[in-house]
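[job 4471] stage=fold_predict status=RUNNING
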Amino acid sequence: MFLTIPTLMTWTRIVAIPLIVGIFYLDISPVSQNLIATIMFVVFAATDWLDGFLARRLNQTSSFGAFLDPVADKFLVCAALLVLVHLQRADVFVALIIIGREIAISALREWMALIGATKSVAVHMLGKIKTTVQMVAIPFLLFDGILFGIINTKVWGTWLIWLSAILTVWSMAYYLKKAIPEIRARAK
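[job 4471] inference complete, writing C-alpha cells
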C-alpha cells in the first residue's frame, strides 16, 4: 500500500524539510521566519502521531509505511537540528550526538532485521521519551522568543535539547545492550 492516506501523511514530513529550511531564506523578518518555521514543524511533526492512528483506524498499515515512518521522523529532526546549528541556537555537539545515534541505531536495526533478531531492538519507552523531548525542544528553539509573555523558549529549548542528547545516549546504550547477545552470537 504505497499511496494510502497514512503513507501520504508520512511523505509530507519529508516534503516539509525544504519548506521549513526555505523559510529562513525568505525576505521577511526573523520573528516571522521563526513563527512560520515553528508552526510548520509542529504541524508536520504532529502527522507522525496522526498517520499511525489513521493507519490502524483505516486498516491501512503496510510494510512500506512501517519503513517510511521512522525515516521521515529522522529526516525532519536531523534537518531541523542542522538549521538550528546554522542559526547558532543549538550546539553542534548536540546535533552530532542526536544524528549519530539515529544513524547508528538505524544501522543496528537493519542488521538485526537481516539476522532475524528485530525483537531485541524493538522501540522502547526510553526511545519514545527521547523523541518527545526532541519534538518539544526543536520548536522552542525554532521560535526563539518569549511565548505567551512568560516562557523563554530559547532557555527551555536549550535545556530540553541537552536533555534530549542525554536521553539519546542513554537510549542508544539500552539498544546496544539488548543487541550485544545477538551480536556476540554471530560475530566471527
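[job 4471] summary: The radius of gyration is 18 Å.
[job 4471] exit 0
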